[in-house]
Amino acid sequence: xxxxxxxKSSRRRFLKTTAIAGAGSAAGAVAVNAVSPYVLPxxxxxxxxxxxxxxxxxxxxxxxxxxxxxxxVAVIGGGFAGLSTAYxxxxxxxxxxxxxxxxxxxxxxxxxxxxxxxxxxxxxxxxMQLSGTPELDKRIYDLTAENIxxxxxxxxxxxxxxxxxxxxxxxxxxxxxxxxxxxxxxxxARAANFPCEFWEKEKVVEALGTQAYEGACFDPNSGQVHxxxxxxxFKAATESVGVEIFEQTQVLHVHxxxxxxxxxxxxxxxxARSVVLATNAYSSKLGFLRRAATPVFDxxxxxxxxSDAELSALGWxxxxxxARPCPIxxxxxxxISRRRSSSIGRPPMRCLSVNPSRNSxxxxxxxxxxxxxxxx
Length: 376
Ligand SMILES: Cc1cc2nc3c(=O)[nH]c(=O)nc-3n(C[C@H](O)[C@H](O)[C@H](O)COP(=O)(O)OP(=O)(O)OC[C@H]3O[C@@H](n4cnc5c(N)ncnc54)[C@H](O)[C@@H]3O)c2cc1C
Known about the structure:
By secondary structure, this protein is of the alpha/beta class.
């Protein structure tokens, strides 16, 4: 009996000690998590500078936030999503109060200033494929085609060249098996009033100068743009409607409550009624979407400006951007013709961005097993 009580009491003691230790560890972990941004050094590569080719055309950097302030809406992140959200919130007076945008580094430091420069219609999950609701697909397609036209209008209104071209794009078929799928897609898409076309191999060879592809889907509303200049356009447009943009102002915490409070790395506080999280692949650093985002490595390479002779040797007469699916990474080539970029000289072929990062959609400096150029 005494033995039994001793056993029970020691089990109870063990459970109690374990529970206290567990609660202590959990509380410790919460505390460490809360104070770590203040006591541990920032992971250096989180906001690594954008050294891409496009970054040379990014707009000058605004000063950081120097005082606490109150706003109606605070937008975190100065990529395409943050800038355009801030712009449309203020444009036409949708929000009358103060709208501020806080950017950790500089506008366009993230994916918006280091991408493949293609402006494609529709959304990624519906691009060149129909869902169960083709009417909705078509509405989304029309909206995105209209967006591209609006970029052009905005460029003209603000007199800022973004090198935008809306001459269409090709989704190419890598293998003969893909051709039937592409034909089938085009047939169904045309029945739903999409303006796409299926291009036979001969027409693709004529447009791209390569025998590599077996056919392609052509979308007339897609095109290409200079991403760095597009960031500049969005930034100018956003400021023109009265949004205040503070750069080199990293938000460390979003404190939720009736009025949200954002604390910045340099110790300032912004209080706002609403906050827009436009932080893309960096959102987990603020504690959001930790389990919803997966970093994707994507390579973009850019050629030196091409002479007329080189362009003609390539046979890429159409200048149409073309995308091809690839099992592990997507790859994009950005040819620059001499006429469009004579001022930049002839840099060697390079990646758009260096330093892979676990935290962002970033690109590798020397991707392995590069395919030959031009594609054969
Ligand atoms: C290699 C590559 C190629 C691509 N090619 C194409 C293409 O050809 N066509 C196309 O349409 N799309 C392309 N994309 C996708 C496209 O670039 C992105 O979808 C788009 O730029 C995302 O914009 P964003 O504003 O959401 O994010 P981002 O441009 O990443 O902007 C997020 C911003 O938030 C800031 N930020 C993050 N956290 C904080 C914080 N705590 N405080 C303050 N600021 C913060 C960051 O510094 C960053 O500037 C490509 C992407 C990559 C990576």
